[in-house]
Write a structure and sequence with these properties.
It contains 18 helices and 22 strands. By secondary structure, the chain is α/β, with parallel strands linked by helices. The protein folds into 4 domains: about 110 residues, Cobalt-precorrin-4 Transmethylase, domain 1 (3-Layer(aba) Sandwich), CATH 3.40.1010.10; about 120 residues, Methyltransferase, Cobalt-precorrin-4 Transmethylase, Domain 2, CATH 3.30.950; about 120 residues, Rossmann fold, CATH 3.40.50.10090; about 120 residues, 3-Layer(aba) Sandwich (Rossmann fold), CATH 3.40.50. A 5-stranded parallel sheet has the order 3-2-6-1-7, with helices on both faces. A 5-stranded mixed sheet has the order 8-9-12-10-11, with helices on both faces. Helix 13 packs parallel to helix 14 and helix 16 packs parallel to helix 17. The longest helix has 13 residues. GO terms for molecular function: uroporphyrin-III C-methyltransferase activity; uroporphyrinogen-III synthase activity. Belongs to the precorrin methyltransferase family. This is uroporphyrinogen-III C-methyltransferase.
């Protein structure tokens, strides 16, 4: 397949604002070339074999010069590769996408432009500032706050711009704010005109500074506001008081450390971010195949006809069991003769995906509760299969055996301490940059402690949120006092309890 370059607008920051076409282009790309302002979550859409190349440019810190980026795109396309060029915002709104496209055209290489949501509109909208409003502003302009330094004269018509447009949005203008505001006032824009700066617009670390044209430069210096930020000028800024919606969410500004396994963290992260939290995913655990490489589980599946009960204690247990069931060329019909018990609504929901409804789901999601519910149905003829994690407690199998049942406990997965560099997390904890830590299992507690070298003092002042009493007890056993213990032992229950605590 001939090489081709897609110049993709990655949007203003919120990964959810990427277009569908943009995602499709990333998914099929051989090479992804991405900027500083392109959210790193977008890289998860790339294939495992894709080459990822960072070419970010910050003030006085350019990974590559623009000419080098242009040549990189040309070289990769000439290798017959599909290239996804991810650019913050929209590629044709001060994104130098035009320069890159011209270079490709000059080299006879095909390209497509995939427009993106520009921060000029989106960052203002997330701050509750509409760039137009029928009763306030009938026009708006987007202006660069950082002109091409090689130009002999300014390309901005300050005289007409200052008084001829209702709403002005300057991009990349924080460093030049004294000059921008001086020109506006000198050309007729009243110094009292409402203005706002929106830093990291659309992201959970968004900051909004409301000011006036005359006071903007001094206020930015006073509050230490840094790039990247847009500068909005106009009466529409006054609408923020009524239209503010993003930065008044229940968890906005809270920095939450999510310690769940990477393949499971997205659900919890998504719910917290929907409430405005900034999530730092740092998995303390990693889920792996059991020590015997499924030998015991496969043997139990081969002998399913000898059991009359099957118990699942987690979503992972369900997923790993059914993966091995399929590996044995079987499906849910092989379980038709069995009674099934499940700890928790989430585990029961995972079973429903395979067309199965659990016979017993205790109201309290822990081993003691499922044991109490099952005891009336257990006798000496009960043969029970319990596929679960290697690290699980013995309360359930011991209680069933005391009731006369024969119980086969088979390991279908294990949790181990996650691999990776935790120095950045340790630094954040040392600098008090984390507000809340979530613990979704006992293993996330013990393994986090390993990853921070058992420095429990790093957790002082951080809110510890546990998914339930068993996890909370593990915290206490390790000299950590939990602040939150969910009464409903699910992700939804944990998030609800965190919101209650914060409020």
């Amino acid at each position: 397949m001939a090489g081709k370059v897609y110049l993709i607008g990655a949007g203003p920051g919120d990964a959810g604002l990427l277009t569908i076409k943009g995602r499709e282009c990333i998914e099929k790309a051989d090479v992804v070339v991405y900027d500083y302002l392109a959210d790193k979550k977008l890289l998860t859409y790339a294939s495992e074999n894709a080459e990822l190349i960072y070419v970010g440019k910050q003030a006085n810190n350019h990974t590559m010069k623009q000419e080098e980026i242009n040549q990189l795109l040309v070289d990769k396309a000439k290798e017959d590769k599909i290239v996804a060029r991810l650019k913050g915002g929209d590629p044709f709104v001060f994104g130098r996408g035009g320069e890159e496209a011209l270079e490709l055209r000059d080299n006879g290489l095909p390209f497509e432009i995939v427009p993106g949501v520009t921060s000029a509109i989106a960052a203002a909208a997330y701050a509750g500032i509409p760039v137009t409003h029928r009763k306030v502003a009938a026009s708006f302009a987007v202006i660069t706050g950082h002109e091409d330094p090689s130009r002999a004269e300014s390309g901005i018509n300050w005289k007409n711009l200052a008084v001829g447009i209702d709403t002005l949005v300057f991009l990349m203008g924080v460093g030049n704010l004294p000059h921008i505001t001086k020109e506006l006032i000198a050309n007729g824009r009243p110094g009292s005109t409402p203005a706002a700066l929106v830093r990291w617009g659309t992201k959970t670390q968004q900051e909004v500074l409301v000011t006036t044209v005359a006071d903007a430069a001094a206020d930015v210096e006073k509050h230490g506001l840094k790039a990247p930020a847009i500068f909005v000028v106009g009466d529409v800024v006054n609408l923020r008081d009524k239209l503010q919606w993003f930065d008044n969410k229940k968890l906005f500004g809270k920095k939450v450390l999510v310690t769940r396994a990477r393949q499971q963290a997205s659900k919890l992260t998504g719910k917290l971010e929907a409430l405005g939290a900034e999530c730092i995913e740092a998995p303390a655990i990693q889920i792996q195949a059991p020590d015997d490489n499924y030998a015991a589980l496969d043997k139990s599946i081969a002998g399913l006809n000898t059991y009359n009960w099957l118990i699942f204690t987690s979503i992972n247990g369900v997923e790993y069991f059914f993966n091995r069931l399929e590996n044995s060329k079987l499906d849910s019909r092989a379980l038709g003769h069995l009674k099934i018990a499940a700890i928790g609504d989430s585990t029961a929901e995972a079973l429903r995906k395979y067309g199965l409804k659990a016979d017993i789901v205790p109201q309290e999601f822990k081993a003691e509760a499922i044991l109490a519910d099952m005891l009336p149905y257990i006798d000496n003829n009960s043969n029970i299969l319990l596929p679960r994690a290697k690290e699980a407690r013995e309360v359930l199998p011991e209680g069933l055996r005391k009731a006369g049942a024969k119980v086969d406990v088979v390991q279908c997965y294990k949790t181990v301490t996650a691999a990776g560099d935790y120095s950045n997390i340790i630094k954040k904890l040392e600098n008090k940059e984390i507000d809340i830590i979530t613990f979704t299992s006992s293993s996330t507690v013990t393994n986090l402690l390993k990853l921070i070298n058992n420095k429990i003092e790093l957790l002082d002042g951080v809110t510890k949120a546990c998914i339930g009493p068993i996890t909370a007890q593990t915290c206490k056993d390790n000299n950590i006092e939990p602040d939150i213990s969910a009464q409903t032992y699910t992700i939804d229950g944990l998030v609800e309890k965190i919101v209650d605590f914060v409020e």
